[in-house]
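quick one before i forget lol
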Amino acid sequence: MDEILEILEKDARTTPEEIARMTGRSPAEVKAAIRELEKKGVILKYTAIINKDLADSAVQALIEVKVTPQRGIGYDAVAERIIKFPEVLTAYLLSGTYDILVIVEGRNLQEVATFVSEKLATLDQVTGTVTHFMLKKYKEQGVIFHRKKRNKRLLVSP
């Protein structure tokens, strides 16, 4: 992977000037390279990783979806329908028992359950779902969420 991409993937807030110092390129070269990567669709979006436990935000769930692929287009048609739902954050085609993994978000457990039962499971090609609610997030995109607090007390020896 390109050096600039590696730096931006670790921290998208790294400025072109900082990247230039890190890579030995000029800031103008870095800016031009980033513009080209954005233009080509290599860089699609800049985002922040949010600790939703601390932000008191929504419930997330991973949903394994079993589908019947359509002749001539496979899984793409049903995946395109699934990703149009606003509740869907992420969708992957998988190998194994289930075909598509969907990550969804709702205000509460009931909202996610309603999405699954009324929208996702009712699609013609969907033959089954398994929903896993995220209880605790330990690590995402290389970022560790909950670090153990170190005991700062001194050890007392007998």
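fyi Helices lie at 3-10, 16-23, 27-40, 52-55, 76-83, 109-120.
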